[in-house]
């Protein structure tokens, strides 16, 4: 990715990542705590006796909070149960209270004071337990009865725990131990059961003073991208962000990213890793899909935008309302201020202003700043959050590279990317369709694409990230995200038909003079879809014929047709006949095609048109075609002034068409025949 | 066999210009070429004089198309007006015992072929004469060219017709009735599966753009079959003919095995000396008049001159050595009929796949293009694809007898595209001599019908049962021709037309409708 592209622009208004108005604002007076429940995606605001909660997914700032009353007391943390029937509140380091929202019953859970203390808790949807409480002595797993009357301890995982991290997205809990807190016990509490990870250590560079740095919970980030689970670890001494990927039975370090700020946080948007370099106030985007650990784009500030920009170019429109720093608005936003908490995947909680922001990617800006079109297309084809925008950008790029007359090899690569991505999404789509029948409600196909009918048949609309469940037996990705149900996505994949419709037809007019170049591109396109065994709108063949005929490349036109690169069809045949007005060979190709397609009527009519009326009649006789007007043959023969032929035709028609001798046509031409030459006998 | 020693009277081949030597004493001027070259001038002039007389006489009745053939008692005279007022005449001896039974049109096509090839390499004869009115340049090019061409007949016959092997080295074999199921002046195509065809076309696009913005032409052959071309039908035929003669993998490998015989015959070593014995005036004076370029006569059809280089490109020293002068001067050049453009010819070979690349010469003169850069580009952009395509085609290729259709001995010609397909020669030889003779006779009839139609498309359907119970069939329709021999004695006419109909539907997409 090219970073110099923006250097020239240089304006502070340029960004690849932005947050925009309106935010979700919790203007509850006397609130004393702001929490985020990642399992239920709830923003929770507490007062001394009330709990306000907002749904953050889908992100809607206007949604009113729901209100629950709880007894007064300190709140260290608060989480709704997964069925939202109960609220669990950690009151102290030895007490957790559970409130049943319906029955208003309260259940208290206390641990042995003194010997151990509670570090935190979370709800689980594993079959084994419903609630996990992490203590300094290990993790207790509890099952609740349906009425939440009691907690039953089902299992204890003994370990010395300094601190822990958990995200519901990954269902992964990492328990830190050791002097440097860099030794980890990990468990995944997924719907398939509880899996214990092998114990592992994280890398920590020694500081210059040779003191051993201690890892804190804030230095670790669990993220999910492309259905893979990663743990990111900040190593401040080395100024590196280490990546660990979790497999079923192994934790493997997979490279490191450089960091430019001692304060660091991460978000994940649309499977892209956003690394906030807080001191530098910039975001760097990484796409972990590719092996390269190079950033997708140059570091740019996070921007605040007044309103959503959609189809228009971001740089042009938003300059006046964008602000990288703050205070232009009533919201008084200070970027990367201390009160910000970054919530994985894509939320920022501003504790000071009590607002929640959702992070957005500006795909247009990213593509505008990239010069390598092939990798850009690959990048865009992996986007799902704004699939439609990604798709439109891809189409735009495809059009642009053709109009810019990029070398055919470059265009070929681009086409290959798009076709392969489509083919892949078709294949993946069918897989998921099967799965949806017995699993979750299938995702509705939003914003039906112009070609939705075809898409639905092939099932390509469904996002390509096929979830790999633990139960699905995939050896590699045992861990995976649970995002799928709510991903209201269509794929940015572009079908060959759409490529034809939105790329080739739109460039055709502008490139008539360069039909040779366009033919080269279309050939590559046909090769690409043929390699993927896909079909395309047959109008592309009509276009190919026009272009080849225009540049008088009849030899190739002939090869394209006889080798069936141009698939035979009635439309194609008619185009050949039409283009064949300049070249009899091409016209014959059209005639041959009509015959091969057994389009008897058209074949016979075209033959007569070309003056081969005897051949036409012979063919009609052989194939018993009576739909062609008999007068056509007669008129053709009469026009050629060959009375013998006329006589022969009259005789054949009398045999071919019952009752022909009674028609007025017969009399007319029989009369003409007798007038002209009495010597010819019928 | 239809062979003859070059020394006897069985073959005369001459080319002359009616616009030259019209005053007495200057008759020799009109002779451009005569075979055998060592025949005395009076005999040469008598052959040409007779031909000229016949042409002048027949033109009285048919100014557009004069004499085509004269059948004498012992000889056939075949006429071909190669260019306006430039005539080629072939006189062949009739001899039933040696099997010297010809179809006149097949012989005329030999004349046509050698002329087309000559024009492809040297440009039109008229243009040469106009450039150098003494005719010395033209003669010095024609003599080795046609002699080289005639010598190639021996090699061809060796590979195609094993019966003639005994005579190789001593004799020339002109196409006899045994070759009635083939059509000179057409190309034979390889049938491709769609996905391979798409790959090929994609390769063609790559090749065509190897010289940057300058569009090249290309032709691809697999063994002796055409895979793709971007040239017009006529140019395709000429270049294809040459490639099959000299460039394809088969041509390269068969040269070495059979050439040793031919050296004993009217081989290359003698030709140059003999061409110097050319009848007109003193060659030496011509040389001095025309300067240095006369010393090096390019002989494009010279055999055994092409080898495959390390980089896959075919190398030849026919056009000179690469070391001398400008590096591009040694690159072969040809003329395209359709565009009248002079093109550099590059040949690249990978196993059975031969790729010919044509680039306009003026682009190089202008400095827009360098051959070595193009070569580099081909290797970089195309060599992987070439590898893959060669593999694909080889895998799907049915071998020598791929286009054999059981029970049929056939020839299909498409005159529009100049493409033909026929039973493999090995299968044709299983036909009885009578069958071949009958078919040859039938073709002769069709030829004369066609020539009477004067370029208009004829529609014909002929089925004949010959003496040995063979059915010989000719079907001509809208520019396509089908010839067939069916040696199943008991078949009725109805069965026969059915059989032809089935063949047509199955293999010719129903092009030949049978009543």
TrEMBL record, chain A:
PANTHER family: COLON CANCER-ASSOCIATED PROTEIN MIC1, REGULATOR OF MON1-CCZ1 COMPLEX. Residues 34-146 form the Regulator of MON1-CCZ1 complex N-terminal domain. Residues 437-459 are annotated as: Disordered. One of its GO terms (biological process) is regulation of autophagy. GO terms for cellular component: late endosome membrane; lysosomal membrane; Mon1-Ccz1 complex. Residues 427-657 form the Mic1 domain. This is Regulator of MON1-CCZ1 complex C-terminal. Residues 437-446 have a biased composition (Polar residues). It comes from Arabidopsis suecica (Swedish thale-cress).
């Amino acid at each position: 990715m090219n970073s110099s592209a923006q250097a020239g622009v240089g304006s502070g208004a340029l960004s690849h990542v932005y947050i925009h108005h309106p935010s979700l604002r919790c203007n509850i007076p006397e609130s004393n705590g702001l929490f985020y429940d990642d399992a239920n995606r709830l923003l929770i605001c507490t007062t001394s006796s009330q709990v306000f909660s907002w749904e953050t997914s889908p992100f809607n700032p206007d949604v009113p909070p729901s209100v629950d009353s709880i007894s007064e007391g300190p709140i260290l943390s608060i989480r709704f149960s997964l069925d939202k029937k109960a609220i669990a509140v950690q009151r102290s380091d030895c007490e957790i209270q559970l409130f049943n929202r319906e029955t208003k019953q309260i259940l208290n859970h206390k641990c042995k004071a003194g010997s151990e203390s509670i570090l935190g808790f979370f709800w689980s949807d594993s079959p084994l337990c419903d609630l996990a409480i992490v203590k300094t002595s290990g993790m207790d797993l509890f099952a609740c009865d349906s009425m939440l009357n009691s907690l039953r301890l089902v299992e204890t995982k003994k370990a010395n725990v300094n601190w822990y991290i958990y995200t519901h997205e990954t269902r992964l809990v990492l328990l830190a131990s050791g002097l440097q807190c860099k030794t980890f016990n990990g468990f995944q509490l997924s719907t398939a059961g509880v899996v214990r990870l092998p114990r592992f250590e994280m890398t920590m560079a020694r500081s210059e003073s040779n003191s051993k740095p201690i890892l804190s919970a804030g230095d670790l980030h669990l993220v999910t991208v492309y259905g893979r689970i990663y743990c990111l670890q900040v190593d401040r001494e080395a100024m590196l962000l280490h990546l660990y990927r979790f497999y079923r039975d192994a934790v493997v370090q997979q490279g490191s990213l450089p960091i430019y700020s001692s304060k660091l946080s991460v978000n994940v948007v649309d499977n892209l890793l956003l690394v906030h370099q807080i001191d530098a106030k910039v975001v760097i985007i990484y796409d972990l899909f590719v092996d390269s650990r190079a950033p997708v784009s140059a570091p740019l500030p996070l921007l605040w935008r007044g309103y959503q920009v959609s189809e228009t170019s971001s740089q042009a429109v938003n300059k006046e309302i964008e602000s990288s720093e703050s205070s232009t608005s009533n919201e008084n936003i200070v970027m990367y201020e201390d009160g910000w908490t970054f919530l994985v995947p894509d939320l920022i909680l501003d504790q000071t202003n009590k607002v929640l922001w959702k992070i957005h990617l500006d795909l247009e800006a990213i593509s505008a700043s990239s010069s390598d079109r092939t990798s850009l297309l690959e990048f865009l084809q992996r986007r799902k959050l704004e699939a439609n925008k990604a798709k439109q950008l891809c189409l735009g790029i495809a059009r642009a590279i053709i109009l810019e007359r990029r070398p055919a090899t470059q265009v070929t690569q681009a086409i290959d990317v798009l076709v392969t991505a489509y083919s892949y999404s078709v294949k993946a789509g069918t897989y998921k369709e099967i799965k949806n029948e017995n699993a979750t409600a299938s995702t509705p196909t939003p914003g039906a694409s112009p070609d939705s009918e075809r898409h639905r048949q092939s099932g390509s609309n469904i996002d390509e990230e096929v979830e790999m469940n633990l139960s699905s037996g995939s050896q590699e990705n045992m861990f995976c995200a649970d995002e799928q149900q709510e991903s209201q996505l269509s794929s940015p994949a572009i079908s060959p038909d759409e490529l034809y419709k939105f790329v080739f037809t739109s460039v055709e007019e502008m490139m008539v003079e360069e039909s040779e170049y366009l033919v080269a591109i279309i050939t590559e396109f046909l090769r690409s879809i043929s390699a993927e065994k896909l079909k395309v709108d047959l109008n592309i063949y009509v276009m190919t014929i026009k272009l080849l005929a225009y540049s008088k490349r009849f030899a190739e036109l002939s090869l394209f047709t006889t080798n069936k690169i141009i698939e035979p069809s009635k439309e194609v045949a008619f185009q050949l006949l039409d283009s064949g007005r300049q070249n009899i060979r091409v016209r014959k190709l059209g005639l041959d095609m009509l015959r091969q397609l057994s389009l008897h009527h058209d074949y016979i009519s075209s033959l007569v048109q070309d003056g081969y009326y005897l051949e036409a009649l012979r063919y009609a006789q052989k194939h018993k075609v009576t739909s062609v007007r008999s007068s056509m043959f007669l008129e053709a023969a009469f026009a050629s002034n060959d009375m013998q032929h006329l006589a022969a035709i009259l005789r054949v028609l009398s045999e071919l068409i019952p009752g022909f001798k009674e028609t007025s046509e017969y009399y007319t031409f029989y009369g003409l025949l007798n007038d002209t030459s009495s010597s010819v006998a019928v | 066999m239809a062979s003859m020693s070059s020394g006897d009277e069985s073959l005369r081949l001459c080319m002359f210009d009616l616009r030259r030597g019209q005053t007495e004493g200057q008759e020799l001027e009109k002779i451009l070429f005569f075979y055998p070259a060592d025949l005395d001038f009076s005999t040469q002039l008598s052959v040409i004089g007779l031909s000229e007389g016949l042409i002048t006489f027949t033109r009285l009745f048919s100014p557009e198309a004069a004499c085509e053939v004269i059948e004498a008692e012992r000889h056939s005279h075949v006429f071909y007006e190669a260019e306006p007022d430039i005539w080629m005449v072939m006189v062949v001896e009739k001899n039933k015992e040696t099997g010297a039974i010809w179809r006149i049109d097949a012989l005329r096509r030999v004349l046509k072929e050698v002329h087309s090839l000559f024009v492809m390499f040297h440009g039109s004869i008229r243009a040469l004469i106009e450039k150098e009115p003494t005719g010395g340049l033209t003669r010095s090019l024609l003599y080795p060219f046609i002699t080289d061409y005639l010598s190639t007949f021996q090699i061809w016959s060796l590979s195609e017709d094993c019966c003639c092997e005994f005579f190789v080295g001593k004799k020339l074999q002109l196409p006899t009735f045994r070759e009635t199921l083939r059509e000179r002046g057409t190309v034979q195509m390889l049938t491709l599966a769609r996905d391979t065809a798409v790959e090929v076309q994609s390769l063609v696009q790559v090749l065509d753009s190897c010289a940057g913005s300058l569009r090249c032409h290309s032709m691809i052959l697999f063994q002796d079959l055409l895979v793709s071309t971007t040239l017009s039908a006529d140019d395709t035929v000429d270049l294809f003919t040459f490639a099959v003669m000299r460039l394809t993998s088969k041509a390269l490998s068969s040269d070495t095995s059979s050439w040793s015989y031919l050296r004993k015959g009217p081989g290359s070593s003698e030709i140059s000396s003999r061409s110097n014995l050319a009848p007109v005036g003193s060659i030496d004076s011509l040389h001095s008049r025309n300067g240095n370029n006369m010393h090096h006569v390019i002989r494009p059809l010279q055999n055994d001159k092409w080898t495959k280089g390390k980089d896959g490109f075919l190398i030849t020293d026919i056009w000179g050595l690469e070391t001398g002068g400008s590096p591009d001067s040694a690159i072969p050049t040809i003329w395209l009929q359709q565009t009248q453009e002079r093109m550099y010819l590059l040949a690249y070979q990978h196993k059975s796949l031969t790729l010919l690349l044509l680039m306009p010469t003026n682009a190089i003169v202008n400095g827009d293009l360098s051959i070595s850069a193009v070569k580099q580009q081909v290797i970089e952009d195309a060599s992987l694809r070439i590898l893959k395509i060669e593999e694909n085609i080889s895998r799907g290729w049915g071998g020598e007898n791929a286009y054999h259709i059981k029970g049929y001995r056939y020839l299909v010609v498409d005159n529009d595209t100049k493409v033909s397909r026929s039973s493999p020669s090995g299968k044709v030889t299983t036909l009885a001599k009578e069958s071949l003779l009958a078919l040859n006779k039938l073709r002769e009839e069709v030829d004369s019908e066609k020539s009477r139609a004067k370029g208009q498309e004829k529609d014909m359907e002929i089925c004949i049962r010959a003496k040995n119970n063979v059915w010989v069939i000719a079907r001509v329709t809208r520019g396509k021709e089908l010839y067939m021999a069916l040696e199943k004695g008991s078949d009725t006419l109805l069965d026969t037309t059915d059989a032809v109909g089935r063949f047509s539907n199955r293999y010719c997409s129903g092009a030949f409708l049978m009543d």
